[in-house]
Amino acid sequence: MSASREKQNRQAAAGQTDPKTARQAQQRKEEKRSNLLYGVIAAAVLIAVIVSFVWRSDFIPKMTTAATIDGESYTATEVTYYYRTAYSNFLNQYSYFTSYLGLNTNATLQSQAISDTAAAMLGIELPEQTETADDPDRDPLMPTGMTWHDYFLDQALENMSVIQAALKAAEAEGFQYPASVQVQYDDNMASLKSAAAAGGISVSQYLKANFGAGLSEKVYGEQLMRVLRYSAYADAWQNSLSFSDSELEETYSADPNAYDHVSYEVVSFSGAAESTTDEEGNTVEPTEEESAAALEAAQEAAKTVLDGFKAGGDLEDLAAENDGTYNKNESGNYSAGSVTSEWLYDSARKSGDADTLEDGTVLYVVVFHDRFRDENPTIDIRHILVPLASGSIAEGEEGYEDEQARLKADAHAKAEELLAQWQSGEATEDSFAALAMKESADGSKYDGGLYTEVYQGQMVTEFNDWCFDSTRQPGDTAVVDTQYGSHVMYFSGVNMDRWQSQAASNLRSEAYAAWEEDLTANLTIQRNESGLKKIG
After folding, report:
1. pLDDT score at 371
2. Alpha-carbon span 445 to 272, nearest angstrom
């Protein structure tokens, strides 16, 4: 009954991860399958009527072949669909890092080269530079090396190759696509029409504004259906995988830091000297002597706290007495390169160990308590979300609280009606899944409202507390209210331990990466440069 972890990542928010590790770089590569479903069109833009549309919009060139993958031709418009989708997904995923990556969203992608820093963070290899700044044949306005345009074009063609290969494999296998594919397609097309109407323009205008001339509703729908079918087939393949206890143990043993947690206390001190301001308001950087004195003061404070703790003092009280910042973490995760993580995850560490650690101008006093893997069971749950309707009164205005109370009551009443409707029928898990697909407002509706391998603390408090109630039994139902609305709950059962779930997820990702590589190993991509010039 396990849904793929990648699909769950599309449905539930995940915590922020360390972008520097090789594991995370590999995961980003594998996540592209999930991202293909996020072909969300940007906000509608009202465009003026253009005279001589065909000639001035490059409509005809966009219908020419831009690429041929294993004999199947794609127009510039079709490639643009995946190109724009890849770009949009990237901005959604890395919205907080675009400036760090050196990507200027206000400039053309063709004019921006990918830096070594961005390449390292994304886990990509930059090709050898074949032209130099003094090459007489190059456009002086274009950068040397790989550009962001090159990157997203490569992503588009690679994604198209995977989809094409998977769909052919599904056809050869006689794979039967689930009903959820058509439901999701219909929902997406309805959302497209709603977005266009909200912008006061036609669907055709909406698509052209966001994907360029040539992308008709028909072409958009065709590519959307290909993506949805691909995802359904890939999910079915991953869901067919199972792993023995010994395989999970072996995966854990190969990299225990990735699965273990630590409980510890830490006090931090800043050893950086503060800058000052002169009479004219200019910033004055600290001198070397001031910087050295600040670092020494932090070192002394850290030593005082450590000595006090070893003498039996309370770490939190000692932190307050010495102007340190105290923190207690009952379930910390490993972070490669972190001074505190490396110390905490040292195999020689014992409960009660304490030490001072220095990381640049920051001093830490760390006390180790325990290292463990999460052996709490995960659970499988189905739900139907009845969201709160939009109110008409702004927060802070008179009547807001009363209106919100009515909206919550309405959502709860609707959820109770749905639960009663299910109870009056077959009242099976399958019938609940069918009702979820029809009525739920949550993305999990396409899996019959199913979330698998849910771990303690993953969901919002009320949802979580009901799921992990010690008396919970398979088949239990209820209506649970959260900040998102009311949820009709169905408890499917207990699943594997949390650490096993993490190990299985990694094994699935590795297996999928190998499967994808095998699917596309012999595919050939031919680029038609005249057609590709129309993409951007």
Report:
1. 98
2. 51
Tell me the C-alpha to C-alpha distance, in Å, between residue 323 and each of 47, 315, 326, 360.
58, 12, 9, 19
User: Regarding beta strands 354-359 and 325-332, do their DSSP bridges make them parallel or antiparallel, or are they unpaired?
Assistant: unpaired
DSSP state of 258: G
Quote the tokens at residue 385: 């979300």
Number of residues in the chain: 536
Six token digits for residue 39: 């072909």
- Strand order of the sheet with strand 260-270? 325-332, 260-270, 362-373, 354-359
pLDDT in tens, 252-278: 999 999 999 999 999 999 999 988 887
The two beta strands, 276-277 and 354-359, are unpaired
Q: Is 259 helix (H, G, I), strand (E, B) or coil?
A: coil
Q: What is the spatial distance between Cα 209 and Cα 200, in angstroms, rounded to a whole number?
A: 13
Q: What's the rounded mean pLDDT across residues 477-490? A: 97
Q: How far apart are CA 496 and CA 501, in angstroms?
A: 6
Helix ranges restricted to H, 265-371: 288-310, 315-321, 339-344
Q: Calculate ∠ Cα 369-469-449, nearest 5°.
A: 110
Predicted confidence (pLDDT) at residue 394 exceeds the cutoff of 80: yes
Contacts of 472 (CB under 8 A, 6+ apart): 379, 466, 491
**What tens digit of pLDDT does each residue of 398-444 get?**
999 999 999 999 999 999 999 999 999 999 999 999 999 999 999 99
Residue pLDDT, tens place only, 169-210:
999 999 999 999 999 999 999 999 999 999 999 999 999 888
22 to each of 122, 335, 478, how far by Cα in Å? 10, 12, 43
Among the listed residues 316, 320, 318, the one whose alpha carbon sits nearest the alpha carbon of residue 328: 316
**Coil, strand or helix: which one is 46?**
coil
Least confident range from 47-56, 104-113, 223-232, 250-259: namely 47-56
Number of H helices, E strands in the chain: 21, 13
User: So what's the pLDDT on residue 281?
Assistant: 78
Distance from the first to the final alpha carbon of the chain? 42
HEC-encoded secondary structure of 98-145: HHHHCCCCCCCHHHCECCHHHHHHHCCCCCCCCCCCCCCCCCCCCCCC
CA-nearest of 444, 441, 483 to 462 is 483
The pLDDT of residue 62 is 57
> Is the pLDDT score of 77 beyond 70?
yes
Q: Please give the DSSP secondary-structure letter assigned to residue 350.
A: -
User: Whose structure tokens read 């456009």?
Assistant: 139
